[in-house]
Design goal:
The protein contains 14 helices and seven strands. A hairpin with a 5-residue loop joins strand 1 and strand 2. The radius of gyration is 21 Å and the shape is globular. Pfam families: B12-binding, B12-binding_2, MerR_1.
Length: about 325
Amino acid sequence: MKPTAGRSQTGMFTASEVEVQTGVPATTLRQWERRYGFPHPVRNASGYRLYSPGDVAAIQYMQSQLQSGVPAGRAAELTVQATRPSSSPAEVPVAAPPPAQPEGRGVARWSALLTDALLASDTDRAGAVLAGVHAHLPVEDVMTGVISPTMVEIGARWERGEITIAHEHQATAYLRSRLSALMDVAGVQGGCGPLVVAACAPEEQHELGLMMLTLALRRRGVRVAYLGANVPLGDLAVYARQREARAVLLALNGTWALDATRAHLRDLDGLGMPLFYGGALLNAEPILAQELGGQYAGPDAPSAAQQIAAALLGSPAIPPHPSGGSA
């Protein structure tokens, strides 16, 4: 399989974030771009380079060739060949350009466009909206300013009876797939940073917020073993100890998860590592974290990731550049 097969070509990672993921310095990336013609970053509205998941895959492929002893020039040739589209020029589909940044209401307008596309079951249009917003905003701003409000709005419409649960499930499945792809590219578990085990509490099925926090942590150099929805606390504790994790992150979004968590909280006795709590329920009642024997992570994915990373790395973690990172 080609290194870029199935990978999005949307620019979404800054040079510094790619350096964390691949170990390739930003200066080397620029040298490869000038000398070999890859990767192919785009520029965001502030002029900073943004690399796509396909770019990251190509960079990793180049690294694997170099680590195998292949000379740089030959490694670059192999990378270009491996990432070249297999279709003839006439067969290569031309993607529609992403929409221009909406006027008025800023980020809220992006969220409204995404909500409308998802509720119309138009995933092509939803993809175009996300491609456009990624060209204008850093990934974490996309999560907090576009994806999160979209999730809240869709949930509110379901509660008001304006849409069916089928609409909500389809929208959630689509956003889950997009976040999962970002999580995969943002960093694997085999790095050298501290390991956090992230899971939804028992009876908790809503996992998109935890996925966003996982993504934010990985972008800060923290390894995350993501376990997903509805994880029994006893199994979570066993897994965390076996993996020699440095911390556990547990998400609760409603009272349906609180009762089940309290009922099995003793399974976390003697965990021997920090226990962080997050999710909508904790945002509404942060004091619950202390009651449950842990600490409140924070109100959103970037701030929670910042707090957890700082605690585990032993010094204040440096957040991504607000305008997109190094150029």
